[in-house]
Structures are given as structure tokens and as C-alpha cells.
């Protein structure tokens, strides 16, 4: 009887539209997320990805680019970063049918691509599963410790954003994040004078 | 002749003459391969003393190496104006601790007395971190020499990456790195090996695979902006070819068939999947092939050292090393093995057969006496780099289950930056470049049968394995399944390709569903299967709608009809 009622409630509810509106689960949020304009999506994603790397107060305007080098198949232990990417360097790619198909088929997209502006080949596909992962990160779940395929996908994207060819400044800020010991070190280096200008150490909760 | 045989000497001689390195380290790690490859390709190394002073804070027991005490380092850096006044000893110590963890992320840095290079293989990515030869690094030097000779373009590219030192780790150490390098002489370990002096069909095929896969990987590296990721993928490339090299030694020297590497994408345990079992079998065959090669190698060594059948039958039990004492148990075991070998060799038809019998026994004796052996080395490297599974020591039987990173390397070595391949082409390239089999196509079945590796295969299960492989690539955004379903699976390393918005039409789920499009199914696809129930709420799919039957998916319609009927 319960199953029958449940089925009727979900499958044959005569007030389905209202039901959809009051629901506040991840699926509804994802639906609303996809319907936002591109700028809002970029900001939300930057905030989520910063939270993915454990930032307690994640920025939504600049994305910190972390890297974690190792040669084996073990999880990353220490992360290193030498910069950020501004929100203006990203754009949103939306799936669409070819023009001659659009007339005949109405298509509702189920993902967007978070793309690097000057290199559309570098992108992160934000589908429902990816959205769930990033939302969990935003809620404070330490997803960085997971070695799931989704987490690896985020890493593949971030690592492709890491380009050092353009570093010509004399003063460079480098951040180190010891994941296991939850320690963050911020170092400022004068490349001309070959000198460590400042070193600051903090716990990651404060970062 | 009844000369005493020392097993250790024979092993060293066989490794030197036929293999090119000593694959005997049970503790070898991917970072050791990286250390050797990069030194061989770069052709120079560094003392790295300044890096050692700054970053090596303490050993495993917490003991600070002499000369690396905080006060000493702090004062020295202040004197040489490497740090500002505002940097305190405490913050410098924090930085040093994290630096040590950063450079030893692969557990390749062991702080020993005198900060010797013997146990230092840094996790880093530029020329400043290339040290003189450390333990287990000859393996990497060997494959580095091969790549230098047979895929020089890739080697030159890696050399440029190392020179540029444009990575964050090098930037972090920039104030202290030493730029004076010493020349590395021993760069080509393979040149003297018979397999590379008289190249047979199998060796040529192997080298062709290195060349083609290396050039394809290089093409992809040129459009990948991260040099550290490039070096990591390059190291996986080297490790995979090293494993193949060891598995093909028998084919190089004894004219045996090439053993395919069967990748398992079933995601199931061998007890539940015929493909997992077959993959396990392909690993076992590789294992046995290495055993047979070494047995042959020891028989050659016996011949070169003047041992004939008569002499061997009179020869006393070999020992591992001169003056090495044996426990009574070991002694008994070795004696039993040797006398069994003598019994078998007595009936051998020829001198060669007799020597081969003793060669097999010498390999078995070495497996008992030495701390490690070639198969163990292969297993350790394979599991730590994400090629073999399970990674734990409880399961001696491994199978080929690739990690995502190794899979990415493989794909980037098979699919060029601007290429779109179909299923047939990728199967051929995986075989030609890596000796890999995944599916059950006629091409792959022929390769399996020709090798004599597996007599019976479940063709359907193998094809399902290929479908799982395609799904794995699709989930990594490296492939797209096109509208005409299985026959046109296009592998597209899209994260390297400049896909224009207009090409987005190839998104897989929507197009696959085109023939059965209805408001309900569209919505279900849009939300994904996890929210299928919700997607069918009344407003989207009213019960009185006339669109309910023909367009529904099979999952939905039975329930609906039943309810409508009631």
C-alpha cells in the first residue's frame, strides 16, 4: 500500500509543478544552476573549486591553481601553487545541436563545460555527478582526500591550467599545502636577488 | 669441470650481457625510474648539496643530519643573504619540513649519513634535481637510453623541459639551486646487448612501438601546458615499456611469441569475470616468460664459463655468494633442488638441454636466496605505478587494471592531438604500440591465438570489456559514443582537442536517445538516472497524456500500463 501511494505521489501527482518548485534537493539545485547566466555559473564554480582545495573562505572571483607532483599512483601529499586565474579567464560552454537539427528536436542540456577562455580544449565537464562532488566540497566535506574518478577529473582540469611559461615577475608568491599535516606555508621569493623575502606558516583551517 | 658456481655472479653476468640493467630491487619505485631516465636523457647531474642542506631536515628517526641543524642553516642563509631579516628560524623550519615532504612525496629520499646520493631520488621536475646514480636507478637509465636512441624527438623535448625549470618546485628552490652540472657518461646501456646489435623481428616491433607511441605522446605534450604532469605521464610511459621489455626478453633472445597484455575493465574479481581471469593469466604468462628467459640466460652463462653436462653433474651445490653462510634449512633446500636438477639432466638429450635444466634450477635457487628477483621487481613497479592490480601484497596473482593516469598516458600515446579514431583503429594502435589487447574483435582474437597465451576465450565477455573501456574513456571526457552506437565509437582526447561549440552535437546521452524522444524520456535523461522517479511527476508527464505509450522507455512503460489498467 505504501509503495502504491509513493508511486502515485511521485509518478501521478496532479500538482507536479508545485511539487517540483518546493523541492530543495541537489537535483533541483543543479537544475537551477544550469539555468543561471554564464557569469553566475563561473563565479559559483570558482567558489566551489576553491572549496574543493580546502579553502574556508573560498573566493568566487579568483581560482587558486594547485599542483601536486609525484611519480607513483599514490594520492598527493603536498600541494604547491604559484598563482590564481581570474573569473574573467573562464567561460561557460553549453551543448547544442547543429542548426539543421535544432528545428526538429528540442534538446535540454544536462551539463555545461567550464572552459578556459583562450583554450577551449581545457575544460571541466559539470554534469550532475560533478556538481554533487563540488557541492559537497562547498559544504566542507574533505573531498580532496578521495581518490575517486571524479576527483581525478578535477585534478586533470586544474593541472592543465597550470602554465609557468608566463612567469616573468621578479617577485613570486608560492603557496604550499601539506594535506596530511594541514599546514599551509606562504613564501615570497625575489627571483632577481635569489632570496626568500618572507615565509608564513598557518594551519589550513585559517587559510 | 667441477668449479663452484656463485649464483650472484651468474645473475650479474646475465643482467649485464642480455638485460642491460639489474631488475632485482624489491623496493624499486617509480621515482627511481624517473631519476634514471631523466639523468640518462639530460646527460648531466648535480650534487644538489644546497638543496640537501635546506630541505633534508631529519631522517626517519627524527635525527638531524650533521650540518643541517636549524641554527647552522639559518645563520648560513642569513650570511649569504638568502633570507630576509623578517624570516624567523621557526618559519624557516616549517618551510624546510614541508620542502622535505614535497621532495620525498614518492618516498625516494632517505636521509643517510653524509647526505650521500645513494638513496636520494627527488620528486621534482627539472635538471637541478638530477642527482648522481642512486639505488635502483639503472632501470631508468636503460629505458632512457632506448628512448634517446629510438625516439630522439621525445628525448630532446624532455631535455628542454628539464632545462627550462619552469615548474613551481624549481621556483621554490630557485634561491639555492646550483647550476653547475657534471657530465653523465654511462648513457646507453642497451648498445652492447645482442638484442640491439642483431635486431630481430620482435625487437624491431618493440622499438617501432616505442617510436610511434613516443612521437604521439610528444605531439600531445606540445599542447599540454603543465611540465610536471608531462614528466609524470612520461615516467608512466617509460615504466610500461620497461615492463613490456622484460616480458619480451624471451621473444628477443629465444624467438618465442610475443605475449599480449590483456587489460581488464570488467571491474570484477577474477572469480566473477572471465576477462579478469584471462588478464590474470596474461600476467602469469608474462611472469613465466621472464622465468624461462632467465633459465635460458643462465644456461648461456654456464656454456660461456665452460660448463658441460659432465661437469655440471659433478658440480657441487651452488651458493649465493662467496663466503656467504647458509642456514641449514636453506642448505637442505638448495641441495634438494640441485640433486633434482642432476637427475633430470642425466637423461637430457643434448649438452644444451642439460645446461637449460641447470639454468632453470639456478633461477629457482636465486628466487630462494636473493632478497628479490626480476618478477618481483616487475610486480612492485607495476602495482606502484597503477598498471597492476590489486596493489596489496596479499594477492600474488595480479592482473592488468590501469589507473586513470596510466590510461591517459596510453591514450595520449595512441591518439594524436588532432585525431579522431574509431574502435578498430584504437585496437590496432594499442596492439602495435603497447602489445595491448582489450576486446574480442577478430583482430584481437587472432593476436591472442597466435601468441598461444590463452586457448579458450569468451569472445562476448571480451567485447563487453571493450565497451567498458570505452565507457571508462567517456567518463574521463576522452571519448564520445556517437549516435550510430557501437560501430562508431570515436575516441576523442577532447581535453587536448580544440572542440568548437558547433561540434557539441555529439554529446552522447541525448543523441543515443533520439529515436525514443518524448517529454518524459528527455527529462529523465536530462536529470540522469538518479532522479528518474522525480522526473516522471505529473506536471511533466500527466497520466492523461496521449504521449504515454510508444515513446516510453522500457523501464517506465510496464509500471505505467499496469497502473493505468488498474
- The secondary-structure class of chain B comes to mainly alpha
How far is the N terminus from the C terminus of chain B? 95 Å
Tell me the major beta sheet of chain B.
Answer: 2 strands, antiparallel
List low-pLDDT spans of chain B: 485-566
**Basic shape of chain B:** globular
The number of helices of chain B is: 24
Strand order of the largest sheet of chain A: 1-2-6-7-8
The percentage helix of chain B is 40-55%
- List the helices and strands of chain A in order: HHHHEEEHEEHHEEE
- Strand-pairing-aware structural class of chain A: alpha+beta
Strand tally of chain A, please? Answer: 8
- Name the chain pair whose interface involves the most residues: A-B, 86 and 94 residues
If you had to describe this structure to a student in words, what would you say it looks like?
The complex is a heterodimer of chains A (207) and B (566). The model of chain A has no long low-confidence stretch (mean pLDDT 88). Chain A has one domain (18-206). In chain A, helix 4 (38-52) packs across helix 6 (128-138). The longest helix of chain A is centred in the N-terminal third of the chain and has 15 residues, at 38-52. By secondary structure, chain A is α+β, with helices and mostly antiparallel strands. Chain A has helices at 2-11, 16-22, 26-35, 38-52, 99-102, 128-138, 149-161; strands at residues 62-67, 78-86, 90-93, 112-116, 119-126, 171-178, 183-190, 195-203. With 566 residues, chain B is mostly helical. Chain B has a domain at 513-565. Chain B is 54% helix and 3% strand. Chain B is built from 24 helices and eight strands. In chain B, strand 7 and strand 8 form a beta hairpin. The radius of gyration of chain B is 29 Å and the shape is globular. The model of chain B is unreliable at 485-566 (pLDDT under 50). Chains A and B meet through helix 1, helix 2, helix 3, strand 2 and strand 5 of A and helix 2, helix 5, helix 8, helix 11 and helix 17 of B.
Amino acid at each position: 500500500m505504501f509503495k502504491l501511494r509513493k508511486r502515485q505521489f511521485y509518478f501521478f501527482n496532479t500538482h507536479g509543478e508545485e511539487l517540483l518548485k518546493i523541492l530543495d534537493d541537489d537535483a533541483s539545485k543543479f537544475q537551477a544552476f544550469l539555468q543561471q547566466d554564464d557569469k553566475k555559473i563561473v563565479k559559483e564554480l570558482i567558489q566551489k573549486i576553491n572549496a574543493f582545495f580546502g579553502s574556508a573562505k573560498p573566493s568566487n572571483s579568483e581560482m587558486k591553481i594547485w599542483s601536486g607532483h609525484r611519480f607513483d599512483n599514490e594520492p598527493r601529499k603536498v600541494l604547491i601553487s604559484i598563482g590564481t586565474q581570474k573569473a574573467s579567464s573562464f567561460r561557460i560552454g553549453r551543448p547544442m545541436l547543429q542548426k539543421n537539427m535544432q528545428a526538429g528536436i528540442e534538446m535540454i542540456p544536462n551539463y555545461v563545460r567550464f572552459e578556459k577562455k583562450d583554450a577551449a580544449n581545457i575544460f571541466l565537464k559539470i554534469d550532475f555527478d560533478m556538481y554533487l562532488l563540488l557541492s559537497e566540497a562547498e559544504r566542507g566535506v574533505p573531498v580532496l582526500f578521495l581518490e575517486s574518478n571524479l576527483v581525478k577529473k578535477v585534478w586533470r582540469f586544474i593541472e592543465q591550467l597550470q602554465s609557468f611559461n608566463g612567469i616573468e615577475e621578479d617577485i613570486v608568491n608560492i603557496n604550499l599545502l601539506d594535506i596530511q599535516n594541514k599546514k599551509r606555508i606562504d613564501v615570497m621569493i625575489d627571483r632577481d636577488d635569489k632570496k626568500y623575502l618572507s615565509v608564513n606558516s598557518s594551519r589550513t583551517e585559517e587559510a | 669441470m667441477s668449479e663452484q658456481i656463485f649464483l650472484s655472479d651468474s645473475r650479474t653476468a646475465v643482467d649485464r650481457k642480455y638485460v642491460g640493467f639489474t631488475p632485482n630491487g624489491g623496493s624499486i619505485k617509480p621515482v627511481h625510474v624517473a631519476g634514471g631516465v631523466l639523468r640518462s636523457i639530460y646527460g648531466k647531474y648535480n650534487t644538489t648539496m644546497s638543496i640537501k642542506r635546506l630541505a633534508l631536515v631529519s631522517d626517519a628517526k627524527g635525527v638531524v643530519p650533521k650540518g643541517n641543524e636549524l641554527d647552522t642553516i639559518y645563520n648560513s642563509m642569513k650570511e649569504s643573504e638568502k633570507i630576509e631579516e623578517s624570516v624567523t628560524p621557526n618559519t624557516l623550519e616549517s618551510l624546510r619540513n614541508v620542502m622535505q615532504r614535497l621532495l620525498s612525496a614518492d618516498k625516494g629520499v632517505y636521509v643517510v649519513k653524509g647526505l650521500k646520493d645513494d638513496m636520494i631520488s627527488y620528486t621534482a621536475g627539472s635538471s637541478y634535481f638530477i642527482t648522481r646514480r642512486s639505488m635502483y636507478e639503472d632501470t631508468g637509465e636503460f629505458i632512457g637510453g632506448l628512448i634517446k636512441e629510438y625516439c630522439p624527438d621525445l628525448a630532446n623535448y624532455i631535455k628542454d623541459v628539464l632545462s627550462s625549470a619552469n615548474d613551481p618546485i624549481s621556483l621554490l628552490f630557485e634561491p639555492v639551486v646550483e647550476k653547475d652540472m657534471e657530465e653523465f657518461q654511462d648513457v646507453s646501456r642497451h648498445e652492447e646487448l645482442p638484442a640491439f646489435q642483431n635486431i630481430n623481428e620482435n625487437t624491431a616491433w618493440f622499438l617501432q612501438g616505442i617510436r610511434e607511441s613516443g612521437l604521439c605522446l610528444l605531439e600531445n605534450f606540445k599542447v599540454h601546458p603543465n611540465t610536471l604532469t608531462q614528466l609524470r605521464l612520461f615516467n608512466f610511459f617509460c615504466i610500461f615499456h620497461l615492463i613490456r621489455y622484460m616480458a619480451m626478453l624471451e621473444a628477443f633472445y629465444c624467438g618465442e611469441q610475443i605475449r599480449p597484455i590483456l587489460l581488464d575493465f570488467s571491474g570484477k574479481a577474477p572469480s566473477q569475470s572471465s576477462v579478469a581471469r584471462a588478464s590474470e593469466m596474461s600476467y602469469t604468462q608474462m611472469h613465466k616468460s621472464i622465468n624461462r628467459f632467465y633459465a635460458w640466460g643462465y644456461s648461456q652463462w654456464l656454456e660461456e664459463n665452460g660448463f658441460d653436462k659432465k661437469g655440471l653433474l659433478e658440480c657441487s651445490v651452488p651458493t649465493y655468494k662467496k663466503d656467504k653462510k647458509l642456514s641449514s634449512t636453506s642448505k637442505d633446500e638448495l641441495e634438494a633442488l640441485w640433486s633434482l636438477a642432476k637427475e633430470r639432466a642425466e637423461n637430457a638429450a643434448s649438452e644444451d638441454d642439460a645446461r637449460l635444466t641447470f639454468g632453470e634450477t639456478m633461477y629457482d635457487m636465486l628466487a630462494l636466496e636473493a632478497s628479490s628477483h626480476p618478477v618481483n621487481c616487475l610486480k612492485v613497479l607495476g602495482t606502484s605505478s597503477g598498471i597492476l592490480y590489486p596493489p596489496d601484497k596479499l594477492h600474488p596473482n595480479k592482473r592488468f587494471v590501469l589507473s586513470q593516469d596510466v590510461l591517459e598516458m596510453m591514450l595520449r600515446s595512441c591518439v594524436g592531438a588532432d585525431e579522431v579514431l574509431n574502435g578498430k583503429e584504437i585496437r590496432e594502435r594499442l596492439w602495435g604500440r603497447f602489445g595491448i589487447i582489450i576486446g574480442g574483435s577478430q583482430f584481437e582474437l587472432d593476436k591472442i591465438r597466435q601468441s598461444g597465451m590463452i586457448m579458450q576465450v569468451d569472445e562476448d565477455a571480451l567485447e563487453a570489456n571493450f565497451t567498458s573501456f570505452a565507457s571508462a574513456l567517456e567518463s574521463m571526457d576522452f571519448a564520445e559514443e556517437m549516435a550510430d552506437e557501437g560501430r562508431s565509437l570515436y575516441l576523442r582526447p577532447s581535453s587536448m582537442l580544440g572542440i568548437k561549440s558547433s561540434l557539441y552535437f555529439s554529446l552522447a546521452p541525448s543523441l543515443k536517445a533520439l529515436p525514443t524522444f518524448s517529454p518524459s524520456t528527455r527529462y529523465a535523461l536530462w536529470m540522469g538516472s538518479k532522479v528518474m522517479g522525480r522526473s516522471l511527476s505529473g506536471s511533466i508527464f500527466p497520466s492523461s497524456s496521449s504521449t504515454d505509450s510508444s515513446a516510453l522507455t522500457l523501464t517506465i512503460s510496464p509500471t505505467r500500463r499496469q497502473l493505468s489498467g488498474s
